[in-house]
Design goal:
This protein has 4 helices and no strands. With 76 residues, the protein is mainly alpha-helical. Helix 1 crosses helix 2.
Length: 76
């Protein structure tokens, strides 16, 4: 599923515009990147090694990969 489809689904479910979803996601990314938590910082270094805010698409792909890996570990 593409990022645009995910954003569209969220917007529909929440009763807001796609632009609002994108705005909220970007804000959440910025706030999460500022976390002092070492585990969070490790995660963000993998996604954005240059320290620049990643695109929503990059973020969603990274989250998807992380979820799949964690799910596979739990099944073992």
């Amino acid at each position: 599923m593409t990022s645009k489809k995910i954003i569209k689904q969220i917007a529909k479910r929440e009763g807001v515009t796609e632009q609002q979803v994108e705005k909220d996601m970007k804000k959440a990314i910025r706030l999460a990147m500022a976390s002092p938590n070492p585990d969070a910082q490790k995660f963000w270094k993998q996604i954005a090694p240059d320290g620049e805010e990643p695109s929503i698409d990059t973020f969603l792909k990274a989250i998807s990969i992380t979820v799949v890996k964690q799910t596979q570990k739990q099944k073992r």
